[in-house]
Amino acid sequence: MRTYLVTGGAGFIGSNYIHYMFKKYDNEIRIINVDVLTYAGNLENLKDIEDRENYTFVKADICDKEAISKIFAENDIDRVVHFAAESHVDRSIKHPEVFVQTNVLGTAVMLNCAKAAWELPDGTFKEGKKFLHVSTDEVYGSLPDDKNAFFYETSPYEPHSPYSASKASSDMLVKAYMDTYKFPANITNCSNNYGPYQFPEKLIPLIINNALQGKKLPVYGDGKNVRDWLFVEDHAKAIDMVQEQGRLFETYNVGGHNEKQNIEIINIIIDTLQEMLPADDPRRALVSKDLITYVEDRKGHDRRYAIAPDKIKAEIGWYPETDFATGIKKTIAWFFEHEDWMKNVTSGDYQKYYDDMYANK
Protein backbone atom coordinates (compact mmCIF):
# COMPACT_ATOMS: atom_id res chain seq x y z
CA MET A 1 0.00 0.00 0.00
CA ARG A 2 1.43 3.35 -1.05
CA THR A 3 1.62 5.97 1.72
CA TYR A 4 1.03 9.66 1.03
CA LEU A 5 2.03 12.48 3.37
CA VAL A 6 -0.26 15.42 2.59
CA THR A 7 0.55 18.77 4.21
CA GLY A 8 -2.26 21.27 4.66
CA GLY A 9 -4.82 18.58 3.99
CA ALA A 10 -7.49 20.25 6.11
CA GLY A 11 -7.45 23.30 3.85
CA PHE A 12 -9.48 23.94 0.72
CA ILE A 13 -7.39 22.33 -2.02
CA GLY A 14 -5.79 19.76 0.26
CA SER A 15 -9.09 18.38 1.54
CA ASN A 16 -10.48 18.19 -1.98
CA TYR A 17 -7.36 16.31 -3.05
CA ILE A 18 -7.77 13.80 -0.21
CA HIS A 19 -11.41 13.22 -1.15
CA TYR A 20 -10.41 12.74 -4.78
CA MET A 21 -7.65 10.27 -3.92
CA PHE A 22 -9.89 8.07 -1.76
CA LYS A 23 -12.60 8.21 -4.40
CA LYS A 24 -10.10 7.02 -7.02
CA TYR A 25 -7.92 4.59 -5.06
CA ASP A 26 -10.12 3.66 -2.06
CA ASN A 27 -8.16 1.14 0.05
CA GLU A 28 -5.15 0.93 -2.27
CA ILE A 29 -3.49 3.91 -0.57
CA ARG A 30 -2.87 5.34 2.90
CA ILE A 31 -2.96 9.07 3.60
CA ILE A 32 -1.35 10.89 6.52
CA ASN A 33 -2.72 14.41 6.72
CA VAL A 34 -0.51 16.95 8.53
CA ASP A 35 -2.10 20.30 9.32
CA VAL A 36 -1.52 22.85 12.07
CA LEU A 37 -5.18 23.96 11.82
CA THR A 38 -4.83 27.69 11.31
CA TYR A 39 -8.03 29.61 10.52
CA ALA A 40 -8.00 28.08 7.00
CA GLY A 41 -7.67 24.48 8.21
CA ASN A 42 -10.99 22.84 8.97
CA LEU A 43 -11.34 19.14 9.84
CA GLU A 44 -15.07 19.35 9.08
CA ASN A 45 -13.89 19.26 5.44
CA LEU A 46 -12.87 15.63 6.07
CA LYS A 47 -15.51 14.48 8.53
CA ASP A 48 -16.85 11.78 6.21
CA ILE A 49 -13.47 10.06 5.89
CA GLU A 50 -11.97 10.63 9.36
CA ASP A 51 -12.77 7.08 10.53
CA ARG A 52 -11.12 5.30 7.61
CA GLU A 53 -8.43 2.86 8.70
CA ASN A 54 -6.15 4.09 5.91
CA TYR A 55 -6.42 7.76 6.94
CA THR A 56 -4.52 9.46 9.78
CA PHE A 57 -4.60 13.07 10.89
CA VAL A 58 -1.61 14.59 12.68
CA LYS A 59 -1.82 18.10 14.10
CA ALA A 60 1.64 19.53 13.47
CA ASP A 61 3.36 22.61 12.10
CA ILE A 62 5.47 22.08 8.96
CA CYS A 63 8.04 24.43 10.54
CA ASP A 64 8.49 21.96 13.41
CA LYS A 65 11.43 19.84 12.26
CA GLU A 66 11.14 17.42 15.18
CA ALA A 67 7.45 16.69 14.51
CA ILE A 68 7.92 16.26 10.75
CA SER A 69 11.03 14.08 11.21
CA LYS A 70 9.07 11.86 13.58
CA ILE A 71 6.36 11.28 10.95
CA PHE A 72 8.99 10.20 8.40
CA ALA A 73 10.74 8.01 10.98
CA GLU A 74 7.54 6.20 11.98
CA ASN A 75 6.13 5.75 8.47
CA ASP A 76 7.48 4.63 5.12
CA ILE A 77 6.38 7.66 3.12
CA ASP A 78 6.20 7.12 -0.66
CA ARG A 79 4.72 10.43 -1.76
CA VAL A 80 4.69 13.92 -0.30
CA VAL A 81 2.09 16.36 -1.59
CA HIS A 82 2.94 19.74 -0.11
CA PHE A 83 -0.07 22.07 -0.02
CA ALA A 84 0.51 23.72 3.36
CA ALA A 85 0.91 27.46 2.89
CA GLU A 86 -0.46 30.81 3.91
CA SER A 87 -2.30 31.88 0.78
CA HIS A 88 -4.41 35.02 1.17
CA VAL A 89 -2.84 38.05 -0.52
CA ASP A 90 -4.54 40.65 1.69
CA ARG A 91 -3.28 38.90 4.83
CA SER A 92 0.24 38.79 3.37
CA ILE A 93 0.21 42.55 2.91
CA LYS A 94 -0.61 43.01 6.62
CA HIS A 95 1.59 40.22 8.02
CA PRO A 96 4.33 39.32 5.51
CA GLU A 97 6.59 37.68 8.10
CA VAL A 98 3.99 34.93 8.74
CA PHE A 99 4.06 34.05 5.05
CA VAL A 100 7.85 33.86 4.96
CA GLN A 101 7.84 31.63 8.04
CA THR A 102 5.31 29.11 6.77
CA ASN A 103 5.85 29.19 3.02
CA VAL A 104 9.64 29.43 2.90
CA LEU A 105 10.96 27.96 6.16
CA GLY A 106 8.18 25.37 6.29
CA THR A 107 9.04 24.18 2.79
CA ALA A 108 12.72 23.97 3.76
CA VAL A 109 11.81 21.74 6.72
CA MET A 110 9.68 19.48 4.51
CA LEU A 111 12.48 19.16 1.94
CA ASN A 112 15.13 18.42 4.55
CA CYS A 113 13.03 15.80 6.33
CA ALA A 114 12.09 14.04 3.10
CA LYS A 115 15.69 14.14 1.91
CA ALA A 116 16.96 12.67 5.20
CA ALA A 117 14.38 9.86 5.05
CA TRP A 118 14.81 8.97 1.37
CA GLU A 119 18.53 9.50 0.67
CA LEU A 120 20.77 6.44 0.32
CA PRO A 121 24.45 6.32 1.42
CA ASP A 122 25.63 6.91 -2.15
CA GLY A 123 23.64 10.15 -2.45
CA THR A 124 20.88 8.70 -4.64
CA PHE A 125 17.31 8.29 -3.46
CA LYS A 126 15.11 5.29 -2.73
CA GLU A 127 13.21 4.05 -5.76
CA GLY A 128 9.70 5.40 -6.23
CA LYS A 129 9.83 8.28 -3.72
CA LYS A 130 8.38 11.58 -4.96
CA PHE A 131 7.79 15.06 -3.54
CA LEU A 132 5.25 17.37 -5.19
CA HIS A 133 5.30 21.05 -4.31
CA VAL A 134 2.00 22.79 -5.05
CA SER A 135 2.48 26.42 -6.05
CA THR A 136 0.66 29.25 -7.80
CA ASP A 137 0.60 31.24 -11.03
CA GLU A 138 1.06 34.40 -8.97
CA VAL A 139 4.83 33.81 -8.88
CA TYR A 140 4.93 34.95 -12.51
CA GLY A 141 3.55 38.40 -11.78
CA SER A 142 1.03 40.08 -14.06
CA LEU A 143 0.15 39.72 -17.74
CA PRO A 144 -0.94 42.51 -20.11
CA ASP A 145 -4.53 42.61 -21.39
CA ASP A 146 -3.45 40.66 -24.45
CA LYS A 147 -5.45 37.49 -24.96
CA ASN A 148 -2.44 35.92 -26.69
CA ALA A 149 -0.20 36.35 -23.64
CA PHE A 150 0.07 33.43 -21.19
CA PHE A 151 2.22 32.12 -18.40
CA TYR A 152 4.44 29.20 -19.41
CA GLU A 153 6.80 27.10 -17.32
CA THR A 154 9.62 29.17 -18.82
CA SER A 155 8.07 32.52 -17.86
CA PRO A 156 10.34 34.57 -15.57
CA TYR A 157 9.32 34.96 -11.93
CA GLU A 158 8.11 38.47 -11.03
CA PRO A 159 6.11 38.28 -7.78
CA HIS A 160 4.35 41.46 -6.66
CA SER A 161 2.94 40.63 -3.21
CA PRO A 162 4.49 39.18 -0.06
CA TYR A 163 2.38 36.06 -0.67
CA SER A 164 3.61 35.50 -4.22
CA ALA A 165 7.18 36.36 -3.20
CA SER A 166 7.06 33.72 -0.46
CA LYS A 167 5.72 31.13 -2.89
CA ALA A 168 8.36 32.06 -5.47
CA SER A 169 10.99 31.59 -2.78
CA SER A 170 9.64 28.14 -1.88
CA ASP A 171 9.62 27.19 -5.57
CA MET A 172 13.28 28.21 -5.80
CA LEU A 173 14.14 26.04 -2.82
CA VAL A 174 12.53 23.00 -4.46
CA LYS A 175 14.33 23.78 -7.73
CA ALA A 176 17.61 24.04 -5.84
CA TYR A 177 17.10 20.64 -4.19
CA MET A 178 16.30 19.09 -7.55
CA ASP A 179 19.41 20.63 -9.13
CA THR A 180 21.84 20.15 -6.24
CA TYR A 181 20.81 16.76 -4.89
CA LYS A 182 18.74 15.36 -7.77
CA PHE A 183 15.97 15.27 -5.18
CA PRO A 184 12.92 13.47 -6.68
CA ALA A 185 10.41 16.29 -6.96
CA ASN A 186 8.02 18.17 -9.18
CA ILE A 187 6.44 21.61 -8.96
CA THR A 188 2.94 22.52 -10.12
CA ASN A 189 1.85 26.13 -10.58
CA CYS A 190 -1.93 26.42 -10.68
CA SER A 191 -4.42 29.14 -11.50
CA ASN A 192 -7.20 30.31 -9.16
CA ASN A 193 -9.10 27.35 -7.69
CA TYR A 194 -12.78 27.31 -6.74
CA GLY A 195 -15.22 24.68 -5.51
CA PRO A 196 -16.41 22.97 -2.29
CA TYR A 197 -14.83 23.75 1.11
CA GLN A 198 -13.26 27.06 0.03
CA PHE A 199 -12.74 29.48 2.92
CA PRO A 200 -15.20 32.41 2.57
CA GLU A 201 -12.57 35.15 2.51
CA LYS A 202 -11.88 34.13 -1.11
CA LEU A 203 -13.82 35.81 -3.92
CA ILE A 204 -16.30 33.14 -5.02
CA PRO A 205 -17.51 31.84 -1.61
CA LEU A 206 -17.49 35.41 -0.26
CA ILE A 207 -19.79 36.59 -3.05
CA ILE A 208 -22.08 33.55 -2.71
CA ASN A 209 -22.38 33.99 1.06
CA ASN A 210 -22.83 37.77 0.98
CA ALA A 211 -25.36 37.67 -1.86
CA LEU A 212 -27.54 35.13 -0.04
CA GLN A 213 -27.59 37.44 2.99
CA GLY A 214 -28.19 40.64 1.04
CA LYS A 215 -24.80 42.02 2.05
CA LYS A 216 -22.53 44.23 -0.05
CA LEU A 217 -20.46 42.52 -2.74
CA PRO A 218 -17.04 44.23 -2.65
CA VAL A 219 -15.13 44.65 -5.91
CA TYR A 220 -11.54 45.88 -5.99
CA GLY A 221 -10.78 48.83 -8.30
CA ASP A 222 -12.66 48.72 -11.60
CA GLY A 223 -13.39 44.99 -11.29
CA LYS A 224 -11.60 44.19 -14.52
CA ASN A 225 -8.72 42.20 -13.08
CA VAL A 226 -8.63 38.85 -14.89
CA ARG A 227 -8.08 35.43 -13.34
CA ASP A 228 -8.01 31.95 -14.86
CA TRP A 229 -10.42 29.79 -12.85
CA LEU A 230 -9.77 26.09 -12.20
CA PHE A 231 -12.34 23.75 -10.63
CA VAL A 232 -10.63 22.19 -7.63
CA GLU A 233 -11.38 18.56 -8.54
CA ASP A 234 -9.68 19.10 -11.91
CA HIS A 235 -6.66 20.37 -9.99
CA ALA A 236 -6.66 17.32 -7.72
CA LYS A 237 -6.65 15.07 -10.78
CA ALA A 238 -3.73 17.02 -12.26
CA ILE A 239 -1.67 16.61 -9.08
CA ASP A 240 -2.23 12.86 -9.05
CA MET A 241 -1.32 12.58 -12.74
CA VAL A 242 1.86 14.62 -12.32
CA GLN A 243 3.00 12.40 -9.45
CA GLU A 244 2.36 9.21 -11.37
CA GLN A 245 3.21 10.22 -14.94
CA GLY A 246 5.23 13.44 -14.80
CA ARG A 247 8.95 13.56 -15.49
CA LEU A 248 11.01 14.11 -12.36
CA PHE A 249 12.51 17.56 -11.80
CA GLU A 250 9.92 19.21 -14.08
CA THR A 251 7.49 22.04 -13.44
CA TYR A 252 3.94 21.77 -14.81
CA ASN A 253 1.51 24.67 -15.11
CA VAL A 254 -2.11 23.75 -14.33
CA GLY A 255 -4.70 26.14 -15.76
CA GLY A 256 -8.45 26.09 -16.24
CA HIS A 257 -8.95 27.84 -19.60
CA ASN A 258 -11.63 29.88 -17.79
CA GLU A 259 -10.44 33.49 -17.93
CA LYS A 260 -12.89 35.91 -16.37
CA GLN A 261 -12.84 39.46 -15.05
CA ASN A 262 -13.72 39.71 -11.35
CA ILE A 263 -16.84 41.70 -12.17
CA GLU A 264 -17.88 38.98 -14.64
CA ILE A 265 -17.53 36.37 -11.89
CA ILE A 266 -19.78 38.36 -9.58
CA ASN A 267 -22.44 38.87 -12.24
CA ILE A 268 -22.37 35.17 -13.15
CA ILE A 269 -22.77 34.18 -9.49
CA ILE A 270 -25.75 36.53 -9.05
CA ASP A 271 -27.42 35.24 -12.24
CA THR A 272 -26.76 31.62 -11.27
CA LEU A 273 -28.10 32.09 -7.74
CA GLN A 274 -31.29 33.66 -9.09
CA GLU A 275 -31.63 30.75 -11.51
CA MET A 276 -31.01 28.04 -8.88
CA LEU A 277 -32.97 29.43 -5.91
CA PRO A 278 -36.59 28.25 -5.72
CA ALA A 279 -39.20 30.94 -6.35
CA ASP A 280 -40.47 30.68 -2.77
CA ASP A 281 -37.01 31.00 -1.18
CA PRO A 282 -36.91 34.40 0.61
CA ARG A 283 -33.21 34.73 -0.20
CA ARG A 284 -34.07 35.08 -3.88
CA ALA A 285 -35.26 38.64 -3.26
CA LEU A 286 -32.00 39.50 -1.49
CA VAL A 287 -29.75 38.50 -4.38
CA SER A 288 -29.26 41.61 -6.48
CA LYS A 289 -26.65 43.34 -8.62
CA ASP A 290 -27.43 46.48 -6.62
CA LEU A 291 -25.26 44.92 -3.87
CA ILE A 292 -22.11 45.34 -6.00
CA THR A 293 -19.86 47.88 -4.27
CA TYR A 294 -16.56 49.11 -5.72
CA VAL A 295 -13.81 49.57 -3.13
CA GLU A 296 -10.25 50.88 -3.14
CA ASP A 297 -7.96 48.62 -5.13
CA ARG A 298 -5.60 46.20 -3.41
CA LYS A 299 -1.96 47.29 -3.15
CA GLY A 300 0.18 45.73 -5.89
CA HIS A 301 -2.90 44.16 -7.48
CA ASP A 302 -1.88 42.08 -10.50
CA ARG A 303 -4.00 42.85 -13.55
CA ARG A 304 -4.23 39.51 -15.30
CA TYR A 305 -3.26 35.86 -14.82
CA ALA A 306 -3.61 33.24 -17.51
CA ILE A 307 -1.90 29.86 -17.70
CA ALA A 308 -1.10 27.88 -20.82
CA PRO A 309 -1.31 24.23 -19.67
CA ASP A 310 0.21 23.01 -22.96
CA LYS A 311 3.02 21.04 -21.34
CA ILE A 312 0.87 19.04 -18.92
CA LYS A 313 -1.55 18.27 -21.75
CA ALA A 314 1.17 17.13 -24.14
CA GLU A 315 3.23 15.09 -21.67
CA ILE A 316 0.61 13.71 -19.30
CA GLY A 317 -2.73 14.04 -21.07
CA TRP A 318 -4.37 16.19 -18.39
CA TYR A 319 -6.83 18.87 -19.38
CA PRO A 320 -9.39 20.94 -17.41
CA GLU A 321 -12.69 19.09 -17.72
CA THR A 322 -14.99 21.58 -16.00
CA ASP A 323 -16.06 24.79 -17.75
CA PHE A 324 -16.92 27.70 -15.48
CA ALA A 325 -20.69 27.61 -16.05
CA THR A 326 -20.77 23.98 -14.91
CA GLY A 327 -18.26 24.45 -12.09
CA ILE A 328 -20.02 27.42 -10.54
CA LYS A 329 -23.33 25.54 -10.49
CA LYS A 330 -21.65 22.59 -8.76
CA THR A 331 -20.06 24.98 -6.26
CA ILE A 332 -23.30 26.82 -5.46
CA ALA A 333 -25.20 23.52 -5.17
CA TRP A 334 -22.58 22.31 -2.69
CA PHE A 335 -22.94 25.46 -0.59
CA PHE A 336 -26.74 25.05 -0.61
CA GLU A 337 -26.30 21.49 0.68
CA HIS A 338 -23.73 22.49 3.32
CA GLU A 339 -25.13 25.66 4.84
CA ASP A 340 -24.15 24.49 8.34
CA TRP A 341 -20.53 24.25 7.16
CA MET A 342 -20.63 27.87 6.02
CA LYS A 343 -22.26 29.01 9.27
CA ASN A 344 -19.63 27.21 11.35
CA VAL A 345 -16.80 28.74 9.32
CA THR A 346 -18.10 32.31 9.31
CA SER A 347 -18.89 32.15 13.05
CA GLY A 348 -15.55 30.56 13.93
CA ASP A 349 -17.27 27.64 15.69
CA TYR A 350 -15.24 25.11 13.67
CA GLN A 351 -12.04 26.42 15.28
CA LYS A 352 -13.41 26.32 18.82
CA TYR A 353 -14.51 22.70 18.43
CA TYR A 354 -11.17 21.43 17.15
CA ASP A 355 -9.12 23.64 19.46
CA ASP A 356 -10.89 21.96 22.38
CA MET A 357 -10.44 18.51 20.83
CA TYR A 358 -6.66 18.88 20.51
CA ALA A 359 -6.04 20.99 23.62
CA ASN A 360 -4.85 18.01 25.65
CA LYS A 361 -3.11 16.05 22.92
Automatic annotation (TrEMBL):
<keyword id="KW-0520">NAD</keyword>
<dbReference type="GO" id="GO:0009225">
    <property type="term" value="P:nucleotide-sugar metabolic process"/>
</dbReference>
<dbReference type="GO" id="GO:0008460">
    <property type="term" value="F:dTDP-glucose 4,6-dehydratase activity"/>
</dbReference>
<dbReference type="Pfam" id="PF16363">
    <property type="entry name" value="GDP_Man_Dehyd"/>
</dbReference>
<keyword id="KW-0456">Lyase</keyword>
<feature type="domain" description="NAD(P)-binding">
    <location>
        <begin position="5"/>
        <end position="331"/>
    </location>
</feature>
<dbReference type="InterPro" id="IPR005888">
    <property type="entry name" value="dTDP_Gluc_deHydtase"/>
</dbReference>
<dbReference type="InterPro" id="IPR016040">
    <property type="entry name" value="NAD(P)-bd_dom"/>
</dbReference>
<protein>
    <recommendedName>
        <fullName>dTDP-glucose 4,6-dehydratase</fullName>
        <ecNumber>4.2.1.46</ecNumber>
    </recommendedName>
</protein>
<dbReference type="InterPro" id="IPR036291">
    <property type="entry name" value="NAD(P)-bd_dom_sf"/>
</dbReference>
<comment type="similarity">
    <text>Belongs to the NAD(P)-dependent epimerase/dehydratase family. dTDP-glucose dehydratase subfamily.</text>
</comment>
